[in-house]
Write a structure and sequence with these properties.
The protein contains 12 helices and 9 strands. The chain is an alpha+beta fold and 361 residues long. It has one domain: Cytochrome P450 (Cytochrome p450), CATH 1.10.630.10. It is globular and about 60 Å long.
Length: 361
């Protein structure tokens, strides 16, 4: 394919090819080496290197040093404790929806608050700061917010994260930042890692909850199965991840000549990885266009693959396993409060989803 800047590169769409590129360390994830597959207004001709703490845009050995520290934050014990808090947070949001009465915007009243509050739990944000924290987060995730406001929100969050790091170093807790302060990371690396986890996690799960609800409303037979078969909750989450693939593309740059699926990729060429196409490859998933909550969708690429696989995948799964059944148990008559064609979709974002999802019951 020809990239917007005139670069001749490649597009990988098959499951095997996409997985091979993601797993091969001869392909770099460094931003400054890759080309953008679509034009982005205001983006420089060449991307700058990743900021401190951003694991997505770095390779070994720096990536090898940082990733194990962050992976170690998401232990089985912490996920078990997080599950209990997600259950409480979800119940609180459902109570608020019930008090407000229908109709409501599921994004604003359910999906986004759950994600923001879970991030607060993981980062050890004090309860008194959570409203301000959520306001900054809402500014960042609102596609209609002016660039100046977003910039101010970024600066406020970075300053706040540095304050959290200083507090965690003085009194380490059992949250993610607290556990990281016991290592050899600098304050800037700690705040940068926090900003990276925040940026990577805020939009994704919130959009999975909202877009997943829309998908289930569009497939009433699958929604009925989820309600009547508690044993398929886990497979339902994996199938929704596969079917929706909200983080739809990725890019890698070849560090040397590499042959993938019989095709020579030359050093310096970029490869755009279409994860949404790979997850609907009939060679991997029979009837891939069908949403089947009983499907064994393990191995999908919705969360990436290889050394850059999503760091927050376990908290994300916890939230979805709790939130979807709880929502439909509390509101068994939940329905869209508009025509499906009128739901505003996020078609120009790096994370697919919905801007709003009006629902009633």
């Amino acid at each position: 394919m020809t990239y917007p800047d005139g670069h001749d590169g490649w597009l990988a769409t098959g499951y095997a090819a996409c997985r091979a590129v993601l797993a091969d360390r001869r392909f770099s994830s460094r931003y400054e080496l890759m080309r953008l597959p679509v034009p982005i207004a205001g983006a420089p001709p060449e991307l700058p290197p990743a900021p401190v703490g951003d694991l997505t845009g770095i390779d070994a050995p720096e990536h090898t040093r940082l990733r194990p520290l962050l992976v170690g934050c998401f232990t089985v014990r912490r996920m078990r404790a997080l599950t209990r808090r997600v259950e409480e947070i979800t119940a609180d949001r459902l109570d608020a929806m019930e008090r407000a009465g229908a109709p409501v915007d599921l994004v604003a009243e359910f999906a986004s608050p759950i994600r923001a509050l879970v991030i607060c739990e993981l980062f050890g944000v004090p309860y008194g700061d959570r409203d301000a924290f959520r306001r900054h987060v809402a500014t960042l995730t609102d596609m209609g917010t002016a660039a100046e406001e977003k910039g101010a929100a970024v600066e406020a969050l970075q300053a706040y994260l540095l304050d959290l790091v200083r507090a965690a170093r003085g009194r380490p807790g059992d949250d993610v930042l607290g556990s990281l302060t016991t290592g050899d990371l600098t304050a800037d690396e700690l705040a940068g890692a926090g900003a990276f986890l925040l940026g990577a996690g805020l939009d994704t799960t919130a959009n999975m909850l909202a877009l997943g609800t829309l998908a289930l409303q569009r497939h009433p037979d699958q929604l009925a199965a989820l309600r009547s078969e508690p044993g398929i909750v886990e497979s339902s989450v994996e199938e929704l991840l596969r079917y929706l693939t909200i983080a739809h593309t990725n890019v890698r740059a070849a560090l040397e000549d590499v042959v993938v699926e019989g095709q020579l990729i030359r050093a310096g060429e970029s490869v755009t990885i279409a994860m949404q196409a790979a997850n609907r490859d009939p060679a991997r998933y029979p009837d891939p266009e069908v949403l089947d909550l009983r499907r064994r969708a393990a191995g999908h690429l919705a969360l990436g693959h290889g050394i850059h696989q999503c760091l927050g995948q376990q908290p994300a799964r916890v939230e979805m396993r709790v939130a979807f059944p709880a929502l439909f148990a509390r509101f068994p008559a939940l329905r869209l409060d508009c025509a499906p064609a009128d739901v505003p979709l996020r078609t120009s974002s790096t994370i697919y989803g919905v801007h709003r999802l009006p629902v009633a019951w």
